[in-house]
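Can anyone check this?
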Amino acid sequence: MTKEECKALLDALSKVTACYRHLVLTVGGASDSQNLREELKKTRQKAQELAVANRNKLTAALRDKTVSKEDRAEFERLWVLFTSCMDILETDMRRALELGQEFPLNVPKKHLMQTGMCGGTSAVAARAMSVQNMKYEAAHNIDEVDLKDLENEINQVGEMVYEMEMKVNVPQWTVEAKQDPGAELNSAISVAASSIGMIEVETKSGCDTRRVLAGVVFTAVLLVAVVLAVCVVKLS
């Protein structure tokens, strides 16, 4: 059951991390607003909660000496995926800090960048955090308060990653993948090749049908021409 719980927690963390990245990309754009900054705060806090839960579950599982070799290999694979999520989250938090400092909310709207990202950010955040309805009341000086909180949280995430590496030593190069390198790409190429093959077969079949039809029409015209010629000769 622990393995299934770890997978579920990691899946939730991946989704919230992806949602956070989507929101970060809109900072400084035409859809930037106080609501967006609040959603950023809620999303990153949710990601950190899930990160702590993932760390606790996986750390306990990997330090358990009674775990079978097969289960340990699976937990190590989940650990590598978890650390990758943490790296992505920390990178995006740093990006959000830089963009937040570069584009404060108290500037005229015309100075914001046109990123092409607009609308719909609240729906994305709501889907990622549908499990828990979190309430947050924004302060008037959200720029200063939130950016200071974000800076502190970045340090906390960095410390968490460092502690993880100290408690559990799982070198990424020792973890075996479940699929061969490029398996997903090869699968996509195979599907594409199959589709092209089907198209070629259908095209060839269509061409053959058209050729037969053209031959029948030509033969009919030729017969009609011969009959007309015979009639003309007899009449003359």
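Reply from J.R.: I decoded it. Confidence is low (pLDDT under 50) at residues 131-140.
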